[in-house]
Amino acid sequence: MWPDGEIFGTICVLDNKENHYDNKCVKLLELLRNSIQKDLQLALDERMLEAKIKYIQATENKLRESEIKYRELFNNMRSAVIIYNVKNGGKNFIFEDLNKAAESIEKINKVDVIGKNFKKIFPKGLNTDLFKIMKHVWRTGVP
């Protein structure tokens, strides 16, 4: 019987003379049948897992390729891009990433600002155009 319950074949026990098998022998044949069914289910499960693994690996490869393309575009565009995380209801703006154009325009080094609060990098910068733009984008979602 297949794992879905459909019968696909029989177990045939051949002998050179007619036999009437006792309960012990019938139970043994049933155990053999159950073992074969479980092996078939295991083989089916294994094939399904292999297909899932291949799909996941292909998806991960596509994601890596997409990340590389994104990074190339992000790092080499002329416009300044700053990615930040807002905490405490808009009181803290934490730098997550920025591109080369942002480094050049704002005269900051990426490694010096990632993970840090805007206020620590620009202590007097809360009235700067950059901070006003960041706050506007956070409030409205519009750059």
Structure keywords:
143 residues, mainly alpha, 2 domains, two-stranded antiparallel ribbon, 5 helices, 2 strands, rod-shaped, PAS-like_dom_sf
Could you write a compact summary of the structure shown?
InterPro entries: PAS-like_dom_sf. The chain is mostly helical and 143 residues long.
Low-pLDDT runs = none
- Globally, the shape reads rod-shaped
Structural class: mainly alpha
The number of strands is: 2
Question: Please, what is the average pLDDT?
Answer: 87
Spell the H/E element sequence. Answer: HEEHHHH
Strand content: 5-15%
What number of structural domains do the residues give? 2
Described by strand count, sense and barrel closure, the largest sheet is:
2 strands, antiparallel
Radius of gyration (CA) equals 33 Å
- Distance between the terminal alpha carbons, to the nearest Å? 62 Å
Number of alpha- plus pi-helical segments: 5
Write the layout of secondary structure elements.
Layout: H1 23-76, E1 82-87, E2 92-98, H2 100-106, H3 110-113, H4 118-121, H5 129-140
Antiparallel strand pairs: 1-2
Describe the protein.
- The structure is a single chain.
- Helices cover 57% and strands 9% of the residues.
- The chain folds into two domains: 56 residues; 59 residues, no CATH class.
- The model has no long low-confidence stretch (mean pLDDT 87).
- The two termini are 62 Å apart.
- 6% of the residues are buried.
- It has 143 residues and is mainly alpha-helical.
- The protein is built from five helices and two strands.
- Strand 1 and strand 2 form a beta hairpin.
- It is rod-shaped, with a radius of gyration of 33 Å.
- Strands 1-2 form a two-stranded antiparallel sheet.
